[in-house]
Design brief:
- The protein has about 290 residues and is mainly α.
- The chain has helices at about 10-20, 20-50, 55-60, 65-85, 90-95, 95-100, 105-130, 130-140, 145-170, 175-190, 195-205, 210-220, 225-240, 245-250, 255-285, 290-294.
- It contains 16 helices and no strands.
- The mean pLDDT is about 80.
- About 30% of the residues are buried.
Length: about 290
């Protein structure tokens, strides 16, 4: 039986990482931070248990899931730019980029491998935290399907963040510049994507009827590329069991919260592919811009 072919970039990066104690210490620090937060929440529940009945107490354990999950997402947002910042720029600084480009690996394979190396490392961290989050599912009554959905959304988020980091690394000569540029793109996606809604609210503030409502609905659709909004929609819908987007998008194609999450995943993956294609073009030695620099 033939061996399964693995991207050589992923294989090399993960082999180097796994042989270092750095990953083990990072994993230890990650779980320790989550463990401290877990104990703080648990201490708060012990105080709450003195005047709450058992039913209310067990239902309150659901809080463990969103708190730990949001903490993990924050760590991902900070860690992935740092991990991917040197993926291409580091090769350039070490003078090994030209050697890498002469291998049989395609440009798309190189940028994809660099991105997936970071994503796999992050997913190892998230999977390691499952025993802590399991309290919400074993005691709090959440469905295990919700945990699976969170893992999928976290993977998609890591892919998007990783693709942005690889693109910035391919564009910038220095690693620190790559990190700063990555956070700049994050700011555009996370914050400036609300600007069209604000502009629409100002422009149609004096309108009568449904003009303002229709404008806000249309501009809110831009948030499909925003992972923060998608996670907010996910947590609110799964913890409250209410399909609140169904009222916002009455007769629009989105229809429901589940459809919003699916479309948001598709939009984020499409955006990730866009950044990876840009990264591959940036490191292409036959690119006119790169030829001129040479």
């Amino acid at each position: 039986m033939d061996k399964i072919k693995v991207n050589p970039i992923i294989k090399k990066d993960l082999r180097v990482t796994s042989r270092s104690m750095k990953l083990a210490w990072e994993l230890f620090a990650y779980v320790a931070i989550l463990g401290i937060i877990f104990m703080l929440i648990f201490s708060a529940f012990r105080s709450y248990a003195s005047y709450a009945d058992n039913t209310e107490l067990y239902q309150a354990y659901v809080v463990f899931f969103p708190v730990l999950a949001i903490t993990q997402l924050g760590i991902i947002a900070l860690a992935i730019p740092v991990i991917t910042a040197s993926s291409i720029s580091g090769e350039r600084e070490r003078g090994t980029l030209d050697t890498l480009l002469t291998t049989t690996a395609s440009l798309n394979s190189i940028v994809f491998g660099k991105m997936m190396s970071a994503v796999i490392r992050v997913m190892i961290f998230i999977i390691a935290s499952i025993p802590l989050m399991a309290v919400s599912f074993m005691v709090g009554g959440l469905s295990w399907l919700v945990l699976l959905e969170f893992l999928v959304l976290s993977f998609v988020y890591a892919v998007l963040a990783g693709s942005i980091g690889v693109y910035c690394s391919s564009r910038c000569k220095k690693t620190i510049t790559s990190v700063i540029t990555s956070f700049g793109i994050y700011f555009v996606i996370y914050a400036l994507s609300f600007v069209p809604m604000i502009v629409a609210a100002i422009m149609f503030s004096g309108s009568r009827g449904s003009a303002l409502e229709d404008a806000l609905k249309a501009t809110f659709s831009i948030q499909l590329i925003n992972p923060v909004v998608n996670f907010v929609v996910f947590f609110l819908s799964r913890l409250t069991s209410e399909d609140f987007l169904e009222d916002i998008y009455d007769n629009i194609f989105l229809g429901s919260t589940n459809m919003w999450i699916i479309l948001s995943v598709i939009a984020q993956l499409a955006l990730a592919v866009f950044f990876l294609r840009l990264a591959a073009k940036r490191i292409d030695p036959l690119n006119d811009r790169n030829v001129k620099k040479a």
